[in-house]
């Protein structure tokens, strides 16, 4: 009976060892499946976050570029506009003084003639092209320039057909 008991104990012990080995193998397999599932889900989340961060960075960069370009355009327009107004105001102020001088010395008829000369002659172009060579005279440290001033408007010639 003792032998039967020892045989039974040995069989039970082997059965427990086999069950323990199967349980450990099943536990290891289940752990591998769990870790693989967790890793796969973590990888998907990281990919999703990476795409979101990439798109957010692109959108932020584009928005920043639009803001910078808009500010540059706006400031450039404002500065150019202000400079143009300043230059125009100086020209208008100087023209006003010249007109007052012509009006005081020549009267309304002289002012009308002066306006006609200004309309019919591009002064800057005339000074650049005609104030050279024989048209220039020097006397007493001063320089004089002989200019051709047109007294009638420039009319384009008709096409010959």
Quick summary:
The chain has one domain.
How is this structure best described in words?
Keywords: Membrane, Plasmid, Transmembrane, Transmembrane helix. The chain crosses the membrane at residues 53-78. There is one protein chain. This protein is mainly alpha-helical and 161 residues long. It has one domain. It has helices at 2-120, 123-130, and strands at 136-139, 142-145. It has a two-stranded antiparallel ribbon with strand order 1-2. The mean pLDDT is 83.
Notable traits:
161 residues, mainly alpha, two-stranded antiparallel sheet, 2 helices, rod-shaped, transmembrane
State the share of residues found in helices, binned by percent: over 70%
| Shape type | rod-shaped
Q: Please give the alpha-carbon distance between the first and last residues.
A: 141 Å
Structural class: mainly alpha
Report the major sheet: 2 strands, antiparallel
The number of helices is 2
Radius of gyration using CA atoms only: 49 Å
> Which strand order spans the largest sheet, edge to edge or round the barrel?
1-2
Number of domains: 1
Q: Spell out the helices and strands N to C.
A: HHEE
Overall average residue pLDDT: 83
Share of β-strand residues:
under 5%
Residue windows where pLDDT falls under 50 for at least 5 positions: none
Strand segment count:
2
């Amino acid at each position: 009976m003792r032998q039967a008991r020892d045989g039974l104990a040995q069989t039970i012990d082997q059965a427990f060892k086999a069950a323990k080995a199967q349980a450990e193998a099943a536990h290891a397999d289940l752990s591998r499946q769990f870790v693989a599932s967790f890793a796969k889900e973590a990888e998907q989340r990281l990919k999703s976050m990476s795409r979101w961060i990439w798109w957010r960075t692109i959108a932020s960069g584009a928005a920043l570029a639009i803001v910078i370009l808009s500010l540059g355009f706006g400031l450039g327009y404002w500065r150019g506009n202000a400079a143009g107004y300043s230059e125009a105001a100086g020209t208008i102020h100087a023209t006003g003084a010249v007109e007052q001088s012509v009006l005081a010395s020549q009267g309304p008829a002289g002012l009308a003639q002066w306006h006609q000369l200004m309309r019919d002659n591009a002064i800057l172009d005339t000074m650049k092209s005609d104030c050279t060579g024989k048209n220039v005279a020097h006397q007493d440290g001063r320089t004089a320039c002989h200019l051709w001033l047109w007294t009638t408007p420039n009319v384009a010639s008709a096409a010959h057909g």
